[in-house]
Amino acid sequence: MNRGGRIGRRLLLLLPFGVTGCGFHPVYGGSAGGASGPAQAGLAEVSIGIIPERFGQLLRQALQARFTRGGTGVASRYDLTVAYGLSGEPLAIQQDSSITRVRLVSTATWTLTAQDPQRRTLANGTARSVDAYNAIDNQLFTADLDNEATQRRMSEALAEEITLQLAVWFGKQAKA
């Protein structure tokens, strides 16, 4: 191995120490004593409202899994309301007008409200996910399974984006 390669590897090993010196810390990182960080603690206090239809169920389950990373049994102080839209469009159309690939686009808008008498809106945002699946002719069952798997991936992606947006918001509130 050449000298430049060794130096590059050493610099990569030292990178985390340099970044922590700048005040960088992981979004979900805990404190030095091992307690939950502000993002984890805030997310654990969020109650997620019912989201209708199957895609909504998948999205709610994905959000719940992310919000309860620090454990359960925490009293909720916030309500999260999520509304979504899911649309599909054909991508690959053959000469006989049959569709062989479908793109799904989902958008979720969310609102975080306080559980106080005023029901103050604290934060809101939007998340978007795009994915596609093959719709193979004469294999409707396979296309249905692919559609369901795609929707599951999209709900996970939306949940991750919403979680990150809320984690950043809780982090900013802790610093204020």
Descriptive report:
Helices cover 44% and strands 28% of the residues. The chain has 176 residues and is of the alpha+beta class. It has a single domain (51-175), classed as Lipoprotein like domain (Double Stranded RNA Binding Domain), CATH 3.30.160.150. Strands 1-2-3-4 form a 4-stranded mixed sheet. A hairpin with a 5-residue loop joins strand 2 (78-93) and strand 3.
Characterize this entry briefly.
With 176 residues, the protein is of the alpha+beta class. The protein contains 4 helices and 4 strands.
Secondary-structure topology with pairs:
Layout: H1 3-21, H2 38-44, E1 46-48, H3 53-67, E2 78-93, E3 99-114, E4 121-134, H4 140-175
Parallel strand pairs: 1-2
Antiparallel strand pairs: 2-3, 3-4
Helix pairs in contact: 2-4, 3-4
Task: Tell me which CATH architecture applies here.
Answer: 2-Layer Sandwich
Number of domains: 1
Biggest beta sheet summary: 4 strands, mixed
What is the terminal-to-terminal distance?
49 Å
Rounded to an integer in angstroms, the radius of gyration calculated over CA atoms is 21 Å
Please state how the strands of the largest beta sheet are arranged side by side.
Answer: 1-2-3-4
Classified by CATH, the class is Alpha Beta
Annotation keywords:
176 residues, alpha+beta, Double Stranded RNA Binding Domain, 4-stranded mixed β-sheet, 4 strands, 44% helix
